[in-house]
Write a structure and sequence with these properties.
3 domains; Arc Repressor Mutant, subunit A; Rossmann fold; 6-stranded mixed β-sheet; alpha/beta; 6-stranded antiparallel β-sheet; 403 residues
Length: 403
């Protein structure tokens, strides 16, 4: 039963020492079309969800704390009917001993902190409403986090964020370069290289901080002067799109717990074990988070006689390439967590791939993209959707199939 609990109290007053300290159930916080849900037991936080980027948040924290897992292959995306499917997936992974309880708690704590920060920011800048539902309890309790302690920590983060002049700017916004040609005049070389390779308007400030293994506040401090000079902008971006949405959202949550441990793909590799095509033919790899694009490339290349390896999980790209040793790599530019620029840079650091052609796949073939791609070591561009004749022209030029 939902109880309207609209109040002018701050979140810390609502969840800390006052009336909500012993609340058990779900607490919804809503404002401006957005809603967050906190799950509590006797004033302890169990889980938090909602907001503009629930899937992006899941990717970020699972990648950070459980890098051996592929977020796309593990959790069902939260739905209106079951907004806690990712939490339940964590419980299953702990039960199967695929992650430790400590790793699960780390994911939960990071998730709760992000949600609390967003709520505090909204509460201090916009009217918010609260609704509680004591009947909505999570069955599994992987952690019981002290709400008062977490709120004090997040309030401190918020105070620093506000002092940077960012009260009206969410960490869910994505930085984008406005005048990259002017950056060398205002940044050290190391910062310039980081900005050119990572800041592309497709990853949020939080995503970048995770990727760079930096504290969000510390990283943002570096960007604020450039933002004030107009060299960097901040823009809204959508949440990540779940892969194979129709297949995933139609599977009941109970199906997760009944799937054998060996049934969860860890690598995100398509048709790579074994390689498709003749064992004597040259190997071509395609790194693209889209299953359809990988299948299209597989059909084009295997019909022409090549061996093919498709990689959908950017986190597993480099280990898979080292194992399969392709002579040509097609690399999608736009992917979650790590984009084509970063992956290309990582590949070029491996001596085996120093001279292997890397062709960027993109639907946005602009001059800035070309400069950045050349900067990180790409060999060329190929427009999407891919054309079979162009794909084969590149492959046959680089890796001619012996008679």
């Amino acid at each position: 039963m939902l109880v309207d609990d609209s109040s002018t109290d701050s979140p810390s007053g609502l969840l800390g020492l006052r009336s909500r300290m012993h609340f058990s159930g779900r607490l919804d916080v809503s404002t401006g079309g957005q809603r967050w849900s906190l799950y509590l037991y006797m004033g302890r936080l169990i889980w938090a969800t909602g907001g503009p980027h629930p899937r992006r948040r899941w990717h970020r924290h699972l990648t950070q704390h459980c890098p051996h897992l592929s977020p796309n292959e593990i959790a069902l995306p939260p739905t209106d009917e079951n907004p806690c499917q990712d939490y339940q997936a964590l419980a299953v992974l702990v039960k199967r001993q695929q992650i430790s309880p400590e790793h699960a708690v780390a994911v939960i704590r990071s998730t709760v902190i992000d949600v609390l920060f967003d709520i505090i920011q909204q509460e201090e800048t916009k009217p918010v409403t609260f609704q509680s539902d004591a009947s909505d309890m999570l069955e599994a309790s992987l952690a019981l986090l002290n709400a008062e302690h977490l709120l004090a920590e997040v309030q401190q983060q918020w105070n620093i964020w506000r002092s940077l002049g960012l009260a009206d700017h969410s960490p869910n916004l994505a930085p984008v370069l406005r005048h990259p040609e002017q950056l060398p005049e205002h940044t050290p070389e190391k910062v310039y290289k980081m900005l050119v390779s990572l800041v592309d308007g497709r990853r949020t400030l939080r995503d970048l901080a995770m990727l760079m293994k930096q504290d969000l506040i510390q990283m943002t401090r570096v960007l604020v002067p450039l933002y004030r000079k107009g060299l960097i902008g901040l823009t809204k971006i959508p949440d990540l799109t779940p892969p194979n949405t129709a297949r995933l959202t139609n599977v009941p949550t109970s199906a997760i717990s009944e799937t054998p441990t060996s049934g969860i793909p860890r690598s995100g590799i398509v048709s790579s074990a074994p390689l498709t095509g003749s064992s004597k033919a040259p190997v071509v790899a395609c790194i693209d988070d889209s299953l359809r694009e990988c299948q299209t490339m597989e059909r084009i290349l295997t019909e022409a006689g090549y061996q093919f390896v498709g990689i959908q999980d950017s986190v597993q790209a480099l280990p898979t390439l080292i194992e399969k040793k392709p002579g040509l790599i097609f690399l999608d530019l736009v992917m979650p967590i790590a984009n084509g620029y970063e992956i290309c840079s990582q590949i070029r650091r491996v001596s085996t791939f120093k001279d292997v052609p890397i062709v960027i796949l993109t639907s946005n073939d602009g001059i800035i993209d070309r400069v950045r791609a050349k900067f990180v070591g790409s060999s060329g561009f190929l427009a999407k959707p891919v054309d079979a004749d162009r794909v084969l022209a590149i492959a046959q030029k680089v890796l001619p199939i012996p008679d």
